[in-house]
Design a protein that fits this description.
Aspartate Aminotransferase, domain 1, alpha/beta, 14 helices, adenosylmethionine-8-amino-7-oxononanoate transaminase activity, 4-stranded mixed β-sheet, Aspartate Aminotransferase, domain 2, 2 domains, 7-stranded mixed β-sheet, pyridoxal phosphate binding, aminotransferase, globular
């Protein structure tokens, strides 16, 4: 890769959330192994992002490579309309075993954003089939992020999300303030009462309440008490709304629980039992394939699927070309097997402990508002927005790949990261702040 290649990139290739008029700097990567990215100039960077939270096993993973190669020799893709195949069936079996009990109807989409689109369409079709066509709006929380396609954008935070740019184009939904921060902060009865009043006001024209459980990701890395999930469940039941959990970012162990909606090992999120907070529809993606290929799933209860099937359309009105792509499904099977065979719970606990210890000095900076850690997520919130280009230049000089946004510098490394690598990442953050 030479200067001409980079000039072409700068002029012609649009990178996420950047401008072709004045694009942010890019760093050419030639390979990736373990938790390290190889720059074209020979330097190595420890990856603190898991490539936007999906490469939980790191890079160039033999088990995932083998699954990809074996499947490519059989078939790389075949339409899912009227056809099925072993990788999709095997992936479905694995998901049914580890997802919250009762969420066993699976729609295999081709990206996280599309899976949220599907979840929202499921909710609208469900209410329509029950005879409530007026219930086509959504309730959600401020501070949320659900994807960049149209329907998910419409339930992203109206200020920090996409509403300001696309006002008039996006459908409008009802937003309520997010729960008070702090994973262990007690439930605020005033908040609960206000939320109940909000539901009572808007529920009559609403299909579902959609939320990121416990961790609001790209909308601000905000953590809240899991006990609020039971509140959400009770209010949805009271008003006839479906409850949708977006676990694109949190699924497959990132928080220390396999899924915040329940299911699998390590998921005793509430002593009262999983049913008290289990959603009706849930989306998973990102880490599903270990970062190898784009794939996501929208899963729902048998009751939701049955009602949709009895509706006017009689079918789920969605069908992506690359739905249940065999390559992606085969790698997802291998990634789930690798995760469950690994000491992932211990790994995440160790990462949490080390993030807490090594990021603690950042809290002494007057520029820092708060340092918080949950599972394999470490967040340093600044008082002012971060200059991304300047910050990344410092991080790269320190041998770290970290991508800040807004006022947040955060780490979500692969679960396989070792302590020296994690300490390097934290040291780079502390040096910047």
């Amino acid at each position: 890769m030479n200067a001409s290649d980079l000039a072409f990139d700068r002029q012609h290739l649009w990178h996420p959330y950047t401008s072709l008029r004045d694009p942010l700097p890019v760093y050419p990567i030639t390979s990736a192994t373990g938790c390290r990215l190889q720059l074209a100039d020979g330097r190595e960077l420890v990856d603190g992002m898991s490539s936007w939270w999906c490469a939980i096993h790191g890079y160039n993973v033999p088990e995932l490579n083998d699954a990809l190669h074996r499947q490519a020799e059989r078939m790389s893709h075949v339409m899912f309309g009227g056809i099925t195949h072993e990788p999709a069936i095997e992936l479905g079996k694995r998901l049914v075993k580890i997802l919250p009990k009762g969420l066993d109807r699976i729609f295999l989409a081709d990206s996280g954003s599309v899976s949220v689109e599907v979840a929202m369409k499921m909710a609208v079709q469900y209410q329509n089939a029950l005879g409530f066509p007026e219930r086509h709006k959504f309730l959600t929380l401020r501070g949320g992020y659900h994807g960049d396609t149209t329907a998910p954008m419409s339930v992203c935070d109206p200020v920090t999300g996409m509403h300001q740019v696309f006002r008039g184009f996006l459908p409008e939904h009802a937003f309520f303030r997010r729960p008070p921060g702090g994973y262990q902060s007690p439930v605020d009865p005033v908040y609960v009462a206000d939320l109940a009043a909000f539901f009572a006001e808007y529920a009559g024209r609403t299909a579902a309440f959609i939320v990121e459980p416990v961790v609001q990701g790209a909308g601000g890395m905000h953590f809240y008490n899991p006990a609020y999930l039971r509140v959400f469940r009770e209010l949805c039941d009271r008003h006839g709304l479906l409850l949708i959990y977006d676990e694109i970012a949190t699924g497959f162990g990132r928080t220390g629980q396999l899924f915040l909606g329940g299911g699998g090992a390590g998921n005793e999120i509430s002593p009262e039992g999983e049913a008290n907070h289990r959603p009706d529809i849930m989306t998973v993606g990102k880490a599903l394939t270990g970062g190898y290929l784009t794939l996501a799933a929208t899963v729902c209860s048998a009751e939701v699927a049955d009602v949709i099937g009895r509706g006017e359309a009689g079918v789920m009105m969605h069908g992506p070309t690359f739905m249940a792509n065999p390559l992606a499904c085969a790698v997802a099977c291998a990634s789930i097997d690798l995760l469950l065979a690994s000491p992932w719970e211990q790994q995440v606990r160790c990462i949490a402990s080390r993030l807490t210890r090594h990021l603690r000095p950042a809290a002494q900076s007057s520029r820092v508002k708060e340092v918080r850690v949950l599972g394999a997520i470490g967040v340093v919130e600044m008082h002012e927005p971060v200059d991304v280009a300047a910050a990344q230049a410092i991080f790269v000089r320190e041998g770290a790949w970290i991508r800040p946004f807004g006022r947040l510098i955060y780490l979500m490394p692969p679960f396989t990261i070792n302590e020296p690598e994690l300490e390097l990442l934290c040291r780079a953050v502390v040096k910047y702040v």
